[in-house]
Amino acid sequence: MTTKDLSIHHITSRIKEAFYWLTVAATFMLGTAAGDWFATARTGGYNVDPTGLGLGFLNTGLILGAVFLAILACRAYFRPKENSFIEIATFWFAYILTRPVGASFADYFGYNFDKGILGNQWMTVIGLGLFTIAVIALSKRNQGDLQIAHK
After folding, report:
1. What pLDDT score does 139 carry?
2. Which of 30, 80, 126, 147 has CB 3.0 to 4.6 Å from 86, enough for a Cys bridge?
3. Dihedral of alpha carbons 46, 102, 62, 77, sign
4. Which strand (E) or helix (H) includes residue 60?
5. What are the phi and psi torsion angles at 111 (to 5°)?
């Protein structure tokens, strides 16, 4: 291996950063492919995969979400040593799973199956509400940080 390290804690050169971004891109693609493979049906529908498991968006999100939570629980319980194989492997496995878990839930909640159209008004309202809460919380936190800095 060129950099001799897969830890995100040691990105200290341009070559290591280049490898990091290549890894991020590859894991993003892996996660997308895994989610599509779990969710898509072998026949019927708009997106057919002859090898797909056909579990659907919701089931895929729930199954892969449970695997994601199991990895987080493993990390919390066993507290792997920094830069150990387990610490690095569980980080990247969890990172890979963020893509299909998020996309599966987004596809499930953002698709109006009755009308066959993408998007629905309730997810838009919920999304805007969560975004507004996040902006308010972050701006209040930043205001507190600014007050501490000016003292």
Report:
1. 87
2. 80
3. positive
4. helix 56-78
5. -115, 130
Please give the Cα distance from 61 to 74 (Å, whole number). Answer: 20
Instruction: Pull the structure tokens for residue 132.
Output: 């507004």
Q: Taking a C-beta distance cutoff of 8 angstroms, is the pair 37, 59 a contact?
A: no
pLDDT tens-place string over residues 72-98: 999 999 999 988 889 888 988 998 999
pLDDT, tens digit, for every residue of 106-139? 888 776 666 655 555 666 677 778 889 999 988 8
Write phi, then psi, for 68 (nearest 5 degrees): -60, -50
Q: How far apart, in whole angstroms, are the C-alpha atoms of residue 65 and residue 107?
A: 14
* C-alpha distances out from residue 61 to 12, 35, 101, 129, Å: 35, 8, 5, 22
